[in-house]
Amino acid sequence: MTIFVGCIADDFTGATDLAGFLVKQGFRTIQLNGVPAEEPDLGEVDAVVIALKSRTIAANAAIAQSLAALNRLKSWGCHQFYFKYCSTFDSTEKGNIGAVTDALLDALGEDFTIACPALPVNGRSLYQGHLFVNGVLLHESGMQDHPLTPMTDSNLVRFFGKQVRGKVGLVPFEVVEQGAQAIRKAFRRLKAEGKRYAIVDAVTNRHLRHIGHAVKNLKLITGGSGLSMYLVDNFELEDVKNRCADHIAEIPGNVAMLSGSCSTMTRQQVARAKEKFPSFYLDPMQLVNNPGFMENAIQWALEQAKQDSVLIYTTSSPEKVKQLQDLLGIEKAGDLMENSLKKIAKSLAAAGIRKFVIAGGETSGCIVKELNVTIMRIGPEIAPGVPWTVTPGKQPLALALKSGNFGSVDFFEDALEKIK
Ligand code: ADP
């Protein structure tokens, strides 16, 4: 078996996002949720993505998890390694992107890599080392108020420089414009100057294509999912167009749509889906005050799902979310909602439902864990960054996992359309 690209992603839906891009190019791709305890049966595969939850944990723990993932990927003989983080470079001066990059370079015995979070299709671009979100500098984009990783410096040469041990250089826009050869020349120049990392500008997909070709001989590359878009040309894959067979169409039965995201887009998507499918609102106040409510919700879900695809959601307005958080505290409020969706998912799976669409990054993570899903083969894309996935084995599950703002207003219907 030849695995071309071995990837380590610092969060769950980010891993699926990356895996979706890899499949689109023709890499047969598997996502593993965490470093597997036992040797998994990977089957025929060209790329593996190990999803960690290491974005905001202590740097030492992120390093330990990432090295464990790297060792496993190395044991499968991957040709190239890819450390994937968020396209808004979510991290702090203490870590974790820089700390993990250093550890991976050391473990691979390498002395140079790049950092390129750009994802032009989602409005994240990098110009003269400065990261923009939809044309606004990162530190003015709203990311400066992020509760865990407030991004207050858009200059990644400077900011990344605080996270890493070595010196950081820049491959600027005007070089990237000239193509892969010019970028490679810039890598050589930076290395000769004693730089260990290059921030690489990218404003359009054409730039990502040049960068993708330029990194052919780097053992380790790091970036957002965008960097993965043009790697396939570096490898000799046969029949690229038909390599990723679609296994999802064969799974019978209705679909359970479960939504725990309260993002603006998800609220619109839920409102639209309510018009089309039988739906049940897991009203937080009922969950708190009415002991029989959860049981009713489960019974409703089991009955309805026999006849139709169903939507069950905790998705609420910011006012309602705040009301619950004021009552229980933020953490307990989240736990209560996640636990109730988990219970519904488990009951539906036990009753034979095998197709789930889940909205919410954290929500997806905890439901997938509840359903004991450790391996997912990545299938066709529903919306940018959201592919259908399918678990291996005799009774496969199909899962579509969407983080907050991904997808268009018709996301749920689009998802069902794709697996008809
Ligand atoms: P997103 O991808 O949009 O950030 P997540 O699933 O990651 O979505 O996060 C949403 C969080 O909000 C989860 O912890 C979830 O349990 C919590 N939540 C969901 N519904 C409610 C609600 N009605 N009130 C309070 N918290 C909620």
Question: Could you characterize what this model shows?
Answer:
- The chain is an alpha/beta fold.
- It folds into 2 domains: about 5-240, 3-Layer(aba) Sandwich (Rossmann fold); about 255-420, Four-carbon acid sugar kinase, nucleotide binding domain (Molybdenum Cofactor Biosythetic Enzyme, Chain A), CATH 3.40.980.20.
- The protein is about 40% helix and about 20% strand.
- Strands 9-10-5-11-4-1-3-2-16-17-18-15-12-14-13 form a 15-stranded mixed beta sheet, with helices on both faces.
- Helix 2 (about 60-75) runs parallel beside helix 3 (about 95-110), helix 6 packs across helix 7 (about 205-215) and helix 12 packs across helix 13.
- It is globular, with a radius of gyration of 22 Å.
- Bound molecules: adenosine-5'-diphosphate.
- Adenosine-5'-diphosphate (ADP) binds near residues 284 and 362.
What order do the helices and strands come in, and which of them pair?
Blueprint: E1 5-9, H1 12-25, E2 29-33, E3 47-51, H2 59-75, E4 80-84, H3 97-108, E5 113-116, E6 124-127, E7 130-133, E8 136-137, H4 156-163, E9 167-171, H5 173-176, H6 180-192, E10 195-200, H7 205-214, E11 220-223, E12 255-259, H8 264-276, E13 279-281, H9 284-289, H10 293-307, E14 310-313, H11 318-328, H12 330-350, E15 355-359, H13 361-370, E16 375-383, E17 386-390, E18 398-402, H14 411-418
Helix pairs in contact: 2-3, 6-7, 10-12, 11-12, 12-13
The protein binds adenosine-5'-diphosphate.
